[in-house]
Amino acid sequence: DVKVTQSSRYLVKRTGEKVFLECVQDMDHENMFWYRQDPGLGLRLIYFSYDVKMKEKGDIPEGYSVSREKKERFSLILESASTNQTSMYLCASSSHGGLAGDNEQFFGPGTRLTVL
Amino acid sequence: DQQVKQNSPSLSVQEGRISILNCDYTNSMFDYFLWYKKYPAEGPTFLISISSIKDKNEDGRFTVFLNKSAKHLSLHIVPSQPGDSAVYFCAATSGSRLTFGEGTQLTVNP
């Protein structure tokens, strides 16, 4: 069974703290993604990666960075957490595949981050 | 600019009736469309998809319709069940990156 796991389900941090969110997938997928989900805004892409050590900015990269040192692991870093980064963070992965059917992304359970 | 829009934040239907969730897009380069379902405190799970070369795809109680000329897709659930109550996201892509709509909260009342 395919699996994407995220290091924490719930996290509470203080303003200014450095925060690490970890994501691991066991499907040998090349692509990995970080989204945040906010009410009324849907899923917004923060960063994504097509391969190890590669990263691309998504729609809302400000205040975030990422790291992909191994194929199976994609980390999201909040350099200095702020209250407007309180959100649900979702990690996903997908295969490269040239076929349209390979566009399906598999999601982790999410991390609910609260910044006080 | 919002390239994928779900204009109805919520929808309420009776058990056994049809649920119709709608989605509009603006980018004519999108060639593949997906629907995801999300329960609270869980990640989204893939439900059904459709390629732009088709206008309909069916999987059990779920059918997705695509109208390319109108840049509109819809998800039909028949018959609706209380377990279908969730947030439904439509997504569109022309490569590996998905663009999601805002989501529609579906509530199916027993």
Write the layout of secondary structure elements.
The complex is a heterodimer of chains A (116) and B (110).
Chain A: E1 4-6, E2 10-13, E3 19-25, E4 31-38, E5 42-49, E6 56-57, E7 64-70, E8 73-78, E9 87-94, E10 106-107, E11 111-115
Parallel strand pairs in A: 2-11
Antiparallel strand pairs in A: 1-3, 3-8, 4-5, 4-9, 5-6, 7-8, 9-10, 9-11
Chain B: E1 4-5, E2 10-14, E3 19-25, E4 32-38, E5 45-51, E6 56-59, E7 62-67, E8 72-77, E9 86-93, E10 98-100, E11 104-109
Parallel strand pairs in B: 2-11
Antiparallel strand pairs in B: 1-3, 3-8, 4-5, 4-9, 6-7, 7-8, 9-10, 9-11
Commentary on this structure:
The complex is a heterodimer of chains A (about 120) and B (about 110). Chain A is about 0% helix and about 50% strand. Chain A is globular and about 40 Å long. In chain A, the strands form 2 sheets. In chain A, strands 2, 4, 5, 6, 9, 10 and 11 form a 7-stranded mixed sheet that branches. Chain A has a 4-stranded antiparallel sheet with strand order 1-3-8-7, with no helix packed on it. By secondary structure, chain A is mostly beta strands. The radius of gyration of chain B is 13 Å and the shape is globular. The model of chain B has no long low-confidence stretch (mean pLDDT about 95). Chain B has no helices and 11 strands. In chain B, strands 2, 4, 5, 9, 10 and 11 form a 6-stranded mixed sheet that branches. A 5-stranded antiparallel sheet of chain B has the order 1-3-8-7-6, with no helix packed on it. In chain B, a hairpin with a 6-residue loop joins strand 4 and strand 5 (about 45-50). Helix content of chain B is about 0%, strand content about 55%. The interface of A and B includes residues 9, 48, 100 and 103 of A.
